[in-house]
Sequence to fold (216 residues):
Amino acid sequence: MKPVHIIAQIRGSRNEETRWTDGHSFPFRLLQTPGVDELFHLTVEFPPMISLGTRTSFRLEEEMNRIVTVAAAILGMVAAIACAMVQAQVDNKAVTGLTPNKVRWFTPTYYNDGRQRAQLFGDSSRGGVWIDRVKIPSGGRVLAHTHTQDELVTVIQGAWLLGEGAKFEEAKLRPYPSGSFIVIPAGVAHFVAAREGLVIVQLSGTGKFQTDYIEK
Fold:
């Protein structure tokens, strides 16, 4: 008989790895799902049973009852762990904030035009909910490109220049002053620039951020 697997999902905020036994060595592991901060999987693996030919129906029923009892006990323990994790999150909740001088700017490997990026919330390179900022130096420009998801843009500082098309054309640039909000649908080719002064825009999304350049 193949090993029995029981999968459970709980809410939490950290990895756990626990082993439990009732004298019959039934281990389980609580593992975090890669890329999902609050999703965990519980896997319980029982050792193979002796073949039915060497068991009476009474012994088989006894063995099955033991498996059900063990599974119920383990799931109960998982529920307790989940409650403890959730309670810890509630207890640790606090208001967090960033003043402009605390924003951490960095240059991604795929930026070679003077731009910088800052991750305010989440991680746009991995997915999930995220909020980033992009800093474009005065005179900077970004050649035509597309994104795999809608791009939500809020202009924080300066005048952000945006144009549509598969090739950068100065005449097609349209200025969006500070305070503007723009939605660029996924797959729509566009290009941007900053003519006079530094420009900072804020981007947000719910999946892994990806840029595909049309112009090289």
